[in-house]
Amino acid sequence: MFLWTAMDRRVRRLGLLDTKLAQGAAMCVAIILVKLIPEITSLGIGWFVALAVLLGIRPVIKAFGPES
Fold this sequence. Notes:
This protein is mainly α. The protein has helices spanning 2-12, 16-36, 45-64. It is extended, with a radius of gyration of 16 Å.
């Protein structure tokens, strides 16, 4: 559990610009994966929508849900 606490403290130091830069880097990694494995683009749009919803549930709940 100590590892998660230490990582949480580090992430809290990041500002908006740092967060957006990390998101941009993640997008570039995704583009590189698509270029290396073009079969990814043959997946149906439903898979991508389902993945986006699944990955977005927790951040949306944390942002708009009740404070703990």
